[in-house]
Amino acid sequence: MEKQVKIGREFSFGGLIKYILPTMLTAMCLSIFKTIDDGLFVSQFVGKNALSSINIIFPLGAVVGGIGMMFAAGGSAVCAKKMGEGRVDEARHDFTALLLIALVLSTIVAVILNIFMDPILRLLGATELLMEDCRTYARITWLALPIQTLCPIVDFFYPAAGKPIMGMVSAFASGITNVVFDYILIVRMGWGVEGAALSTVLGCIATVSIGIIFYSGKKHDVHFAAPTKKWTHFLARVCRTGVAQFVDSITMGVINFIANLVMLDLVGEDGIAAYSIIGYLQYMLISAFLGITDGVSPIISYCFGSKNKERLKRTLKRIYSFVFMLSGTIVLLCYIFSSPLVSIYVNEAREPELFRMVMEGMVFAPLGFLFAGAGCLTAGVFSALSSGKFSAIMSFCRNIIFNSATIIILPQLFGLTGVWIASPISEFLSLLLAAYILFINRDNYGYGSSGIARMMEN
Questions:
Q1: 383-409 as b/e, with b when 16 or more CB fall inside 10 Å?
Q2: How far apart are CA 376 and CA 398, in angstroms?
């Protein structure tokens, strides 16, 4: 069976990097286009208040988007493990059921959000100055929530299907669609925030359309099939396995919400814009680690499902080595090109104070990339090993405890500098936790020197 499934083959260090490279570039491509959309076009052609308005809505978008991420990561891991066990057809039935469940659930959520839009926006912190733009952006993007929820699912399954390059094709098509319509709707037609929202939705439609075409083909390892009738048991396993990604998304929204309130208190609406810009840069670069995790997870799940301990150990050793090398490189590049990176989002001559504020943040923020890669990867590794428990512990501590504590406490002690050092300190604490979790489980999941206890479960 391994000869028939591409993720079941042996990977050298170079071969592993080559296999996951499209997924890594896909994640970076998506984040770059996303930051061009909400960062460059909105900040340069609409204004800093519009950028702040979009960032006000972001926390809820992250929370709701967590449903799609949970289904995507958990579903991919469960299905890849079944493929490793030789149950390829069953994995295909499960994949189709997952898409249908996500579509129904996200539609229900979209209806609820639009009914209670104004109270929700005020709860998120929308001021009278920002409310109209918040309402415009929310109305369009929340109506399109079902399409947005399907995007990560179709993207996550490309590596499991043996075609990680398709993720890059999808990301490029989505990004180009987004940027082209940004230019048409924002720059040429002057539609402002409404144009930004519509272009975002059109980019999502491109992603889902490509996924439908791809998975309709029967020659791929994963494709559409009659949905499984045992969907309740399957869905429970998906949620348990992908709960870390759900926690990540929720806490990302919570942290952003807290940071918005902190920045409003410290420096007003300009503070939200500054934090947004730093956030876009962090999202763009951390996406590389998320893409690596997405690409290697099906391979790890397959090794776990086939009980191939030695291949699992080699895979983990190689991927962690690559992540640490990449982490150092990213930090170096951030310091060398800090001014050009910030200039993408804010014009120094037009907004000198905002530019100065963001550059102060760039003194500290890049340090977080030294530690973030291993933390992101470790949470993904345990999801791939069907251990929702340790993956959720990693994500919960990294986001709820470390990030929340630092963004609340440090600004009270160090002012604006405390905001910028919060992320590096949080990521360092997460790295220590990741090392501890990996160590105590070394003989439970097959990558240690002896035990394979957990490999015989499920």
A1: bbbbbbebbbbbbbbbbeebbbebbbe
A2: 9
Q: What CA dihedral angle connects 370, 376, 377 and 383, to 10 degrees?
A: 170
Cβ distance 376 to 289 under 8 Å?
Answer: yes
Average confidence score pLDDT of the chain: 85
pLDDT digits (tens, 9 = 90+) for 249-260: 777 777 878 888
Render pLDDT for 430-454 as a digit per residue (tens, 0 to 9).
999 988 988 888 777 767 665 444 4
Rounded to whole angstroms, the Cα distance separating 313 from 81 reads: 16
**How many angstroms separate the CA atoms of 455 and 162, rounded?**
23
Residues 6+ apart with CB under 8 A from 383: 73, 74, 77, 241, 242, 244, 245, 297, 391
What's the confidence (pLDDT) of residue 455? 41
CA distance 113 to 64: 10
pLDDT of residue 280 exceeding 90: no
